[in-house]
Structures are given as structure tokens and as C-alpha cells.
Amino acid sequence: MTDEEQPILGHFATYRFQPDFWRLEPDARRERATEWFESIRSVADVAHLYLTQGIESDSDVLVWSTASVGELGAPARFFRERAAADNRGRDVMQVDHVLWGMTRPSEYSRSAKSAQEIDSFADEERTSYLVMYPFTKTADWYLLGRETRQGMMNEHIRIGKQFREITQLLLYSFGLQDQEFVVVYETDDLQLFSRLVYDLRDTEARRYTKGDTPLHTAVMISPDDWAASVGSASA
What we know:
It is built from 6 helices and 9 strands. The protein is of the alpha+beta class. Strands 1, 2, 3, 4, 5, 6, 7, 8 and 9 form a 9-stranded antiparallel sheet that branches. It has helices spanning 26-41, 74-88, 139-143, 146-161, 190-200, 223-230, and strands at residues 8-17, 46-51, 61-68, 93-102, 129-137, 167-172, 181-187, 209-211, 216-220.
């Protein structure tokens, strides 16, 4: 297996501020927020910060972390270090919701890597918006013949290719979390993304969707801008 084929772990966690954080002085809030994210970022190969405050009601930020897990013990090492980082930041943030999974080659796409596939390690190429959610198929889907499923997925892929500005990452979590997949999209145009989802609603494969919630929409923000915002005197 080449380095390019090594699996990666994608980890998404939403957080909400602890009440005690807002009792700190502005400079202390700014410093503590920076320390918190640096601690979370240090345990992953790459980590990105997103705002969910004002977008959903149960969280303030979302952190997307990526870790290489080609070695057998790599996932365990990541989760141990992530737990330690979360524990160090309990005075700042409380974890609200966690979704994660690992990559593997698609059984429905002929190409090894699609041009619309998200590069999780492209640190400087993130879009303005991230949309992600858990996804599970019905039992009947897996009882269909291989050619039948391929035909329905071909329709799904065809529609997706009409929205080339939108990129996707599919993570597999069978037997690891409640869902079977974690579906991730990046876009600079929320209206266009909403249109893509609408167009996919009347495909035949939609009949076999068991669950695709809760959905998280988030806005990318630099850690420095975020720390400055929560550390402002009027925050």
C-alpha cells in the first residue's frame, strides 16, 4: 500500500463555551481560547476551526481534525491524546457532539480519486463553509444486487458532478459509531449547496436513506480572529 492509499481519520467535534470562561477578563479570555485550540490542534496532523454560534443552538464552534492512521495503534494514540487535550480545556469548552470515521476507496467510483474529493491535508485551501452529517443506509439497500446499487449511485454521482464547485469527503464508520458514514462537504456558496441537496432528494437512492441527521453547517474562522472576538471587551 502506498502512502497515498494510507487511511486517514477525520474527527469532527462541536463545543460550547463553559459559563466560567465569560467571567474571565478580556485578555485572559483571549489567551485561554488560544491555548485551548493550540492544545486541540497539537494532537492531530491538521486541525481547522469553524463557527457554529448563531448557526445552531447547541454549540459555539466546530473543530475538524485529521490524523494519519496507517499504523495499527494510530487511532488509539489519537484518541488518548485528544482526551487529554479536551480534559485540559474543560474550563473553556464542553464537548457537545462528536462524529468520526476513516477513509477507504469507494466501491462505486472507478477513479482512484475524484477531482471533487476534499484534500484534508490542504491547510491553505479551505472554503468558507463546512457542512457535515452522519449517514446511514437502510438494510434493504445492502440486500440489493451489486449492479442495482451501482446504477443508483451512478445517478447520484452524475448529479454531484454538475456542482463542481462543491467538494466532498466520505468517511466510513461502520461498527465504530451509530452511523455508517460521515459525509462532509466544503463550499463557498451555501445556496448552491442547498440546490445540490434538493436535486439529490428525488433520486432513486434516496428511498434507501435511513438517517442523515443531525446536520452541522459551520463557517471557517482563523484561530487568531476567533480568539480576538471572544476576548473583546464587549464579548
